[in-house]
């Protein structure tokens, strides 16, 4: 029987082929993680603000927690980020009144030290969110990393577990996912190391951490971006020391519109796709050289739209500040939201090798949720595609094939005008995600030979052409003008057995839900 994914004739009309038997991998719920770092207002006046009208008895904002649940966040990475590389975790446990503020060198901010390991882990537990912890391998090392695992996961009767109990928490937290430092390839990182230095340290720290708790999973630092001069060689060297010990290698990537180049920005998903493929190839090459059957997977634990080059002055240019300064509070447009949706398409299409991902960050700092001190919390435009994908994408990611015309971009080369991903669960519930990167409406043919497909509802984000403005009024305007339900009756049409047509708006991201099963 011919494979229906490969026998499509060449055509200028985009065609997306899918079948319930052609599967990519299970959609891990940790794919919908986020990130809370001690940076700007992510913690203070973000997730935590005692005295706020919605604050719970522990000082955490319930309005932010409610939006976090609506967003569909499954996991949160903490405490950094660059922050972790000069963090002494022991100074941030125990009675709050006895803790001392300190200068965080990463973001040149006086950290008040009111939220630490216990406060974060108990917040995550109350909200039903899995924690992902990072250890400091910048200014510290093996002892401190193993001690933190013991503090979090150890049973009574040892030094650090007993300290946790003395601090009011008897039951171990049972943290399962741990990052071996952060962006250690970056010269900006406090305690930056070359690949050999870091690889040796990560191996020894990880070994000690697993001796404390063999059930934990470890994430070793990959390259901070595909543009790093050491990219590729860094992964090869680091994994040569850690391959048998770690479970995941990290990836970080941020995307932005530069000099009005919308075409390249809309094709950011192709750059992410290429980055993932190259890291997977690097990891598999190390495995092949070792004759290992083990597969290292990806923890894409920082990704988002961030106007890093055009809006952020750089850490070294920040003055020393205190009282939760407003740092990196990018505001987002409908265009940004379309790109975020398309990046989610890419992540779903790599579900077999990317089980973990973190939208960076959760609140205020390049975030889908914004707050005002003492005031309201609101959804940025990027909130909507993430929340919709987290809600709909269940079960198994299908191996979707896209045949579509391509266009040339300045930054990313050739990119298809349409991208697509799909998931189906055991009950036949279908989620289909489509991006139209072109400035014209597009009709897409869905080929599903041998399978019945029914679309019942959908949602669409269209790009705008207005600059984003801080505040809930702008976010509400974008939601009103760019975010809407799909009129399934007019935009989705069956064309006979095994064929359906979907109409996509210009520069848009669309999510459709329905049913899908063998005919």
UniProtKB/TrEMBL annotation:
Pfam families linked to this entry: Alpha-L-AF_C, ASD1_dom
UniProt GO MF annotations: alpha-L-arabinofuranosidase activity
Transmembrane segments: none
Keyword Iron-sulfur: no
All copies of domain Alpha-L-arabinofuranosidase C-terminal, residue ranges: 301-508
Top-level EC class: hydrolase
Catalytic activity from the UniProt record: Hydrolysis of terminal non-reducing alpha-L-arabinofuranoside residues in alpha-L-arabinosides
Keywords, sorted A to Z: Carbohydrate metabolism, Glycosidase, Hydrolase
EC numbers for this chain: 3.2.1.55
Highest taxon of source: Bacteria
One GO term of the biological process aspect: polysaccharide catabolic process
Similarity comment text for this entry: Belongs to the glycosyl hydrolase 51 family.
Subunit structure: Homohexamer; trimer of dimers.
Protein name: non-reducing end alpha-L-arabinofuranosidase
Record organism: Isoptericola variabilis (strain 225)
């Amino acid at each position: 029987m011919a494979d229906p994914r490969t026998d499509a004739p060449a055509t200028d009309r985009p065609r997306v082929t899918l079948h319930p038997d052609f599967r990519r991998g299970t959609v891990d719920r940790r794919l919908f993680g986020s990130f809370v770092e001690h940076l700007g207002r992510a913690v203070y006046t973000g997730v935590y603000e005692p005295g706020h009208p919605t604050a719970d008895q522990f000082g955490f904002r319930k309005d932010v927690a409610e939006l976090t649940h609506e967003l569909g966040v499954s996991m949160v990475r903490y405490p950094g980020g660059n922050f972790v590389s000069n963090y002494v975790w022991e100074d941030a446990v125990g009675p709050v009144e006895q803790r001392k503020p300190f200068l965080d060198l990463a973001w040149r901010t006086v950290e008040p030290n009111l939220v630490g390991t216990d406060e974060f882990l108990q917040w995550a537990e109350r909200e039903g969110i899995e924690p992902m912890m990072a250890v400091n391998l910048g200014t510290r090392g093996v002892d401190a990393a193993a001690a933190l695992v013991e503090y979090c996961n150890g049973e009574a009767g040892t030094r650090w577990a007993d300290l946790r109990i003395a601090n009011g928490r008897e039951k171990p937290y049972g943290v399962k996912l741990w990052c071996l430092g952060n962006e250690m390839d970056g010269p900006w990182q406090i305690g930056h190391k070359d690949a050999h230095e870091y690889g040796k340290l990560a191996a020894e720290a990880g070994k000690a951490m697993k001796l404390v708790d063999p059930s934990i999973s470890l994430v070793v630092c990959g390259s901070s971006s595909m543009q790093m001069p050491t990219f590729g060689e860094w992964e090869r060297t680091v994994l040569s020391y850690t391959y048998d010990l770690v479970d995941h290698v990290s990836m970080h990537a941020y995307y932005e519109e530069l000099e009005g180049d919308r075409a390249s920005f809309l094709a950011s998903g192709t750059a992410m796709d290429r980055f993932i493929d190259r890291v997977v190839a690097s990891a598999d090459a190390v495995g092949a050289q070792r004759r290992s059957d083990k597969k290292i997977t990806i923890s894409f634990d920082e990704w988002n739209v961030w106007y890093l080059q055009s809006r952020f002055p750089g850490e070294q240019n920040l003055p020393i500040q205190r009282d939760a300064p407003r740092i990196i509070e990018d505001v987002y447009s409908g265009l940004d939201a379309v790109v975020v949706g398309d990046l989610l398409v890419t992540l779903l299409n790599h579900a077999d090798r990317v089980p973990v991902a973190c939208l960076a960050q959760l609140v205020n700092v390049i975030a889908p949720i914004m707050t005002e001190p003492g005031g309201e919390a609101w959804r940025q435009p990027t909130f909507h595609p993430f929340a919709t994908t987290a809600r709909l994408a269940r079960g198994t990611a299908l191996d979707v094939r896209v045949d579509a015309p391509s266009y040339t971009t300045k930054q990313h080369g050739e990119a298809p005008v349409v991208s697509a991903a799909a998931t189906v669960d055991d009950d036949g519930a279908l989620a289909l995600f489509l991006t139209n990167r072109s400035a014209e409406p597009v009709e897409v043919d869905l080929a599903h030979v041998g399978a019945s497909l029914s679309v019942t509802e959908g949602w669409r984000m269209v790009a705008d052409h207005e600059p984003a403005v801080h505040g809930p009024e702008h976010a509400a305007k974008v939601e009103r003008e760019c975010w809407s339900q799909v009129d399934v009756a007019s935009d989705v049409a069956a064309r006979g057995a095994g064929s359906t047509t979907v109409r996509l708006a210009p520069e848009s991201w669309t999510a459709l839900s329905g049913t899908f099963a063998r005919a």
